[in-house]
């Protein structure tokens, strides 16, 4: 593949830093790397493949000469600079939620709908992290028989709130051991030794914005516009890797044995399903890698066409940075 000029918008954050790491890991053909961040960070140095690169301030001219820009910034930043990125002739692969539901913007998980990158007009969206992990887990089942509904509960790690969330959980755990306390800032309440059943603000009929992403984005990724999802998103005191409990219904019955076979051969997924020997997906096992582990597969006792399963995946990597880099690889192909 021909080397290309890469920019990372939001390069100093957790996801931006992970993008740089993954570009190097996957031997992405980088001709030059331009880290782009706020004026506060401009001029500072970052290390990439044994060399120092200088952070450039995010301005309209910062994207000139780039071929692909990987977005690791918040919605408002993505919306602010997307026109400048496209005008500069680069393709913007954005990790924010700013453009995910725009009908003119592809929403891509490379293991599921790689063909959708072909109709981009300069912007491609990376889905929500929990959605990516769940869709990887269920995609092979959807290909066997269309999914009509999903009931899901997510158990989302502190990493979903970035470095501030990771730092706060660590500080709270240490403070608890010392008999002191830490005032919550990244989260509404203390996360250590607690669970918080709200991620995002209320969006629809008591569901939060995070919970509605599973339905809205899942429909677009799987090309199942009629699929219905009821989701509850919970923040849990885990540093890294999200977990999701899924009950799904398909048009035609899929046996547990067939489901295991399909998932074992699904791209991006690994079957870890041996209850007798206590083998099942867990956050500690799925962190710092890119495969979604799937297990606890069993029949749904409330519906003959239902299956229940449990999956885990690294939120920072496959749920964000790796998926973005994989989309960029599709562009080169």
If you had to describe this structure to a student in words, what would you say it looks like?
The protein has helices at residues 14-25, 75-87, 129-144, 162-178, 209-222, 256-264, 283-286, 317-332; strands at 4-9, 30-37, 45-48, 51-54, 56-57, 68-71, 91-94, 123-125, 147-156, 202-204, 207-208, 228-235, 242-250, 269-271, 292-299, 306-313. By secondary structure, the protein is α/β, with parallel strands linked by helices. It has two domains: 4-127 and 320-332, 3-Layer(aba) Sandwich (Rossmann fold), CATH 3.40.50; 131-315, 2-Layer Sandwich (Dihydrodipicolinate Reductase, domain 2), CATH 3.30.360.10. The strands form four sheets. A six-stranded parallel β-sheet has the order 5-2-1-6-7-8, sandwiched between helices. It has a six-stranded mixed β-sheet with strand order 12-9-13-16-15-14. Strands 3-4 form a two-stranded antiparallel ribbon. β10 (202-204) and β11 (207-208) form a beta hairpin. It is globular.
